[in-house]
């Protein structure tokens, strides 16, 4: 990530979120967070505060021991406002869960494309390459 200044950082129960000058919205999930439907709705509200174009590109960096209940997964799988989502995982288990969620998005006919990455730089490169 470049060293350009970030204008606004939103701190929430799930972690912190900001829009980088490269146009990508970065979401750093806090450790030991279990996201439910209320958290998912707040996350979407926060994304829309930073980018209400309907074309947001999201980069989610997982914390340690994060999970997402089914209701939140379903909501996030159907909500509009993003075109691409890159998830940076830290462990084999997170990668397996991410692949399951990607499969669910396809079943839900999600309006955006999601990919999982082990390296932040690769996730950034992909999101920059799909600039809407």
Detailed description of the structure:
- The longest helix has 16 residues.
- This protein starts with 8 loop residues before the first strand and ends with a helix.
- It contains four helices and eight strands.
- Helix 1 runs parallel beside helix 2.
- The protein has 132 residues and is an alpha/beta fold.
- Helix content is 37%, strand content 28%.
- It has a single domain, classed as 2-Layer Sandwich (Transcription Regulator spoIIAA).
- Helix 3 links the parallel strand 7 and strand 8.
Key words describing this protein structure:
alpha/beta; six-stranded mixed β-sheet; two-stranded parallel ribbon; 132 residues; globular; Transcription Regulator spoIIAA
